[in-house]
Design goal:
Strand content: 15-25%
Number of domains: 1
Number of strands: 3
Order of helices and strands: EEEHHH
Protein name: DUF1902 domain-containing protein
Helix content: 40-55%
Distance between the termini: 27 Å
Strand order of the largest sheet: 1-2-3
Radius of gyration: 12 Å
Shape: globular
Length: 74
C-alpha cells in the first residue's frame, strides 16, 4: 500500500492527514491537540513534510501512524 501525506500547518485549523494514494481514503488524521503534542515531542519537522526523499517520507509516515495508534490506546 502506498501513502501520501497531506499537511496544512499554516492555517487557522492545521492538520496532517495520511491518505491511501490509490483510493484517497484518509488512513490517519492529526489535528489541534494531537499536532501540538507531536510538535512538543519533536516528532514533527515541517521540513520533512516538504521532502521528496522516499526514505524520509516512509519514516515520517511510519512515525505518524505509530503516534496515532499510541494516542488511540490511551
Amino acid at each position: 500500500m502506498t501513502y501520501m501525506i497531506d499537511a496544512w500547518l499554516d492555517r487557522p485549523h492545521p492538520y496532517v492527514r495520511i491518505l491511501n494514494r490509490d483510493t484517497g481514503e484518509v488512513c490517519a488524521l492529526l489535528e489541534d491537540d494531537a499536532l501540538d503534542e507531536l510538535r512538543e515531542q519533536g516528532g514533527l519537522d515541517p521540513a520533512e513534510l516538504s521532502t521528496n526523499e522516499p526514505g524520509v517520507v516512509k519514516e515520517l509516515v511510519r512515525n505518524l501512524f505509530l503516534f496515532c495508534y499510541a494516542r488511540a490506546l490511551r
